[in-house]
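Bit of a strange request maybe. I'm writing a small parser for structure token strings and I need a real example to test against, not something I typed by hand. Could someone generate the tokens for this chain?
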Amino acid sequence: MTITEENGRTYGYADLPGLMSLMSGDEKHGLAATSTLDALWVLYDRVLRVGPELTDDPKRDRFLLSKGHGPMAYYAVLAAKGFVPLEWLPDFGSYDSPLGHHPDRVLVPGAEIGSGSLGHGLPIAVGMALGLRAQGLDEPRVWTLVGDAELDEGSNHEAIAFAGPAGLERLHTVVIDNASATYARPGGIAARFEAAGWSAVTVDGRDHEALYAASTAPHPGRPHVVVARVEPKYA
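Reply from user aminoacidic:
Good idea to test on real output. This should exercise your parser:
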């Protein structure tokens, strides 16, 4: 069955590996992509108030993929949810494809930022949460997904240190922990956020119910981080 013949059907989590298999190439960063798959699906399927019909709605939630150098899972989820046509997937990374090796917010429907240069997503999310609060928009939530190795970047620690005391309750972060960070953190990743006044939960990054519970846990007056542990990248 061709891709176009499948259009119109509903896609679920079980379809994501097949959608990802349509994308190929030397620069696909397969391990980086698959590490994010479950967290992305839970967010888009059960947590985020987003959709193809809401891309210009000021009350929509914002999702920022900071871990943008392995976007295959992101593109598969966007295709499953109707943001991008399935016909785009096999051209992933080609010269004239909208689906580049790093997402481009101008070309990819639903993408809030261009990403791939590690360390920028969380600082941008902090600024976005501040901007929404300044506009009196207290409904939208801002989510960003980062990798544990990104936390080696100082810009993230400045963002973490600022967001807690600023009381950015609408700010949420998922850290995909696949043990690829260079520097250890005393007490683990969650402890670093908690020290700056964040609410933090650490879960199995493949357990959808645990991811959902952690993502929807109340955290009044504080930003919130979900540390999603997955299999080590280089195991």
